[in-house]
Amino acid sequence: MKIKLFKNPMYGAMSVCLFLTAQQAVAHTEIQVPIMKEGTGLDNALTISHGCEAKERPIHAQSVMFPTQNPELIASDGHSIADLSEIIDQSLYAGQVDLIQNKNIFQHQDEKHDALGNSIGFWGTDGTLQANLQGRVPFQFVAPNFNPSSCATALSIEVAIADICIFSAPTIRAPKVNLWIPDNGSQYAVLGKAQGVEGIGDPAVLQVKRNLIKNPLNPSCGKGFTVTVRPSAADVDANLGIPGWHY
Fold first, then answer.
1. Which of 17, 18, 83, 92 has the highest count of CB atoms within 10 angstroms of its CB?
2. Measuring CA to CA, which residue among 109, 113, 103 is closest to residue 125?
3. How far apart are CA 28 and CA 47, in angstroms?
4. Number of separate domains in the chain
5. For the segment 186-235, what is each residue's pLDDT rounded down to a tens digit?
6. Residue 70, domain member (yes or no)
7. Residue 19 pLDDT exceeds 50
């Protein structure tokens, strides 16, 4: 197989740029299948691409949380959304995310639950993911349905994730953790940003798309709008921590 070389320096620069962009695009902890259709269920996974601090430290634990009560709701057209029930016909998290037991990385795993017993995320400890290897943490998610009366066409769910390399206090330090979380004022974000922790403002995103054939928009909606569902700062502070680790 021959590799074509570009003589034009502009093409060469573009190739390098695209290569670096592609590398950056897979450098985070993300969701393996990032797009789902409403009302469908899927076995999915978190993809872990590297360890902490220059990617040299192995990951020993992980904490994951989906938006729970009082999430930030951001419409693409700028209008205000009072409650998520305007957009979908059920809770975003009540029984819709479930951890799939898998001890390839973490020996101890469990789900996080709210006061009513609804699963809002999960965690794993006592594991090791070598810094030079890829990791997968499987989970199941059932996508909510869109209210027929809503003009929303897609829901982008931001998922807050902490990949933990070292548990000892103080824990929020670049050599010890990567925080793939919103940059919206939580203590994790404030401390992490001050310490140069990677991932602040870059949470994983799971997008749910409306089935426009079975659940079409009302003609009055025009092209409709999309909605970002982001865990609030208070939500992250209350639910990102796991036993033995906190900010």
1. 92
2. 109
3. 8
4. 1
5. 999 999 999 999 999 999 999 999 999 999 999 999 999 999 999 999 99
6. yes
7. no
